[in-house]
Automatic annotation (TrEMBL):
Signal peptide: none annotated. This is ABC transporter permease. Keywords: Membrane, Transmembrane, Transmembrane helix. It is found in: Membrane. Belongs to the UPF0014 family. The chain crosses the membrane at residues 6-26, 38-57, 63-79, 91-114, 120-140, 218-242. InterPro entries: UPF0014_fam. It comes from the Bacteria. It is a multi-pass membrane protein. Pfam families: UPF0014.
């Protein structure tokens, strides 16, 4: 990147960070340092990822190991966010990984994407990220609902229901609510927002119609993967929350 472009980018980023900092300072909560750390991490990670992906495009066999690393990182992030610890990690890996695997299989079988690293990697990475978000939202909601309605859960356990059965209704509610952002994102595409893939392709010089096709594929793939991830998280982690009253973290 030319030095002049890099300087303009730095100025824009610094001004936006300062704006976010000023607004978030009003909350007086942990949000401010968390946001600043998130920005610094994003900058460092994106710079590193740009180098790694450039190397992967030249070595297509590295796509699968890279996606596996992304999946493990997504599972660990979600487990840390919902507070399930190491006991939740295997179940989160299954729920987060199943959605993208199914979506990618359908897309490749239909021929909607070419089986190349340049197309598979960015598409699957986006879907894994969406699945992680859905898993975190479903897990957080389920944990909090079980904690707040622990009396009902405990009563069902006393009546002989299994741990999974005692929180099944709460799990269904948690999964449904976790999908609200994905549904809103899909519904608002092109009307309220121009999603990332669409904008990226336009900036790269693609025809608007081609950009719309790819974005539709991404949105539908995200919705399918997030549905699988949210439901899978609610079902698979259910016994963890019913084992003992969850501790609701102050966020």
């Amino acid at each position: 990147m030319p030095l002049a472009d890099l300087l303009r980018l730095a100025v824009a980023v610094l001004v936006l960070v300062a704006l976010a900092y000023g607004v978030l300072a009003w909350t007086g909560r942990r949000t401010v340092p968390d946001a600043l750390v998130a920005v610094l991490r994003a900058a460092a990670q994106l710079a590193l990822v740009a180098l790694v992906i450039g190397w992967i495009f030249a070595h297509p066999a590295a796509v699968v190991p890279y996606l596996a690393v992304m999946l493990v990182a997504a599972g660990a992030t979600s487990a840390r966010r919902i507070g399930g610890g190491w006991a939740a990690l295997p179940w989160l890996l299954v729920s987060i990984g199943t959605g993208p695997a199914v979506v990618l299989g359908v897309v490749l079988a239909a021929g909607a994407l070419a089986p190349t690293g340049q197309e598979i990697l960015p598409f699957t990475a986006q879907v894994i990220g969406g699945a992680m978000t859905a898993a975190s939202l479903a897990g957080l909601r389920m944990r909090d609902d079980v904690a707040h309605r622990w009396g009902e859960v405990e009563a069902m356990l006393a009546l002989g229901f299994t741990r999974r059965e005692s929180v099944a209704d709460l799990g269904r509610q948690a999964a449904a609510r976790a999908l609200v952002p994905a549904i809103d994102q899909t519904r608002a595409a092109g009307l309220v927002t121009l999603p990332g893939a669409f904008v990226g392709l336009l900036l790269a010089g693609a025809e608007p119609w081609r950009a719309a096709q790819v974005q539709l594929l991404v949105l539908v793939g995200l919705l399918a993967a997030q549905s699988i991830s949210a439901v899978g998280t609610a079902v698979l982690t259910a016994p963890l929350w019913a084992a003992a009253r969850p501790v609701v973290a102050v966020r």
